[in-house]
Write a structure and sequence with these properties.
With 281 residues, this protein is α/β, with parallel strands linked by helices. Helices cover 35% and strands 17% of the residues. The N and C termini lie far apart (99 Å).
Length: 281
């Protein structure tokens, strides 16, 4: 019997190692499941160009969409949450804060900035869901309060972009106090006759919905946004009835008078500038 032995390697198509795509370069649309390249997201203002689904974004992306040439002055950037209750669940709250700050590059669940939107001056406070679910803690309330003070002092309209799972349980009553605090500040803004626009995005729930998110002179939302106080499952179990189709969506709330407009993100800057000119006059 004759044996044969291969002396050289088989045909090779390339000598280069396989390269992995950088993290974040591609994502899958949560709605239609089609792949979206990062450049496509930016060019379409973070809206899926296949199904028009409004992707969840944070303050960095909203500022780039709204402020002229992405130029703005960040307000109160160094505020950080403390741990007054020395709270511990699966881990210490202070450790969770440090871990989240390192992971997200944010100091807390909100950023505030002043800039121009189509030439119109505007203060924007925007929540970040990636920071402990966009939960409302002491820093969130304090930044909103200081942003409103800045708007009053400089006679500049105020835009609040809400995206939150509700109150931050690790701060207990300190968190709940922010509902009254921010609402009182908004009353002062109204007395000064300075416009307040509230933008509700996906999701806006809990104490945020029950306070500053629904107190705008104009309340607008993005298409398909989940907006409510308690979750649908909790409500269904409480009232022992099936909920209407589309319950707690922006479209349902618009039909029932809780919202003034629903605005596609690609039209948001133009509509905001229109509102600001109208209210300035």
């Amino acid at each position: 019997m004759t044996w044969f032995k291969r002396e050289s390697k088989g045909i090779q198509t390339t000598t280069e190692e396989k390269k992995e795509a950088p993290d974040g370069l591609w994502i899958k649309c949560p709605n239609c499941k089609r792949p979206l390249h990062y450049t496509e997201q930016v060019e379409n203002q973070y809206v899926c160009h296949y199904c028009n689904y409004q992707l969840r974004i944070g303050s960095k992306e909203y500022f780039s969409v709204l402020f002229d040439d992405n130029q703005f002055t960040e307000l109160f950037p160094n505020l950080r949450s403390g741990d007054p209750l020395e709270f511990v669940d699966t881990k210490k709250y202070k450790d969770r804060l440090v871990e989240t700050q390192n992971k997200t590059g944010l100091n807390d669940a909100i950023r505030a900035a002043y800039g121009l939107v189509d030439g119109q001056p505007l203060v924007i406070a925007c929540m970040d869901f990636t920071f402990i679910g966009g939960s409302m803690g002491s820093v969130v309330g304090e930044k909103i309060a200081r942003s409103i003070d800045y708007s009053i002092a400089n006679k500049v309209p105020f835009l609040m972009i809400s995206k939150s799972g509700g109150a931050r349980m690790m701060e207990a009553a300190f968190s709940l106090m922010q509902m009254a605090k921010t609402s009182a500040k908004l009353a002062l803004l109204a007395q000064a006759k300075i416009p307040y626009i509230s933008l509700l995005t996906d999701p806006t729930t809990g104490g945020v919905t029950a306070s500053y998110a629904m107190l705008g002179d104009i309340n607008i939302a993005e298409p398909g946004a989940l907006i409510g106080f308690a979750g649908p499952r909790v409500i269904k179990e409480t009232i022992k009835k099936d909920l209407p189709k589309g319950f707690q969506t922006a479209e349902f709330l618009l039909d029932h008078g809780f919202l003034d407009f629903i605005v596609d993100r690609r039209e948001l800057k133009e509509r905001l500038a229109s509102f600001l000119r109208m209210m300035a006059n």
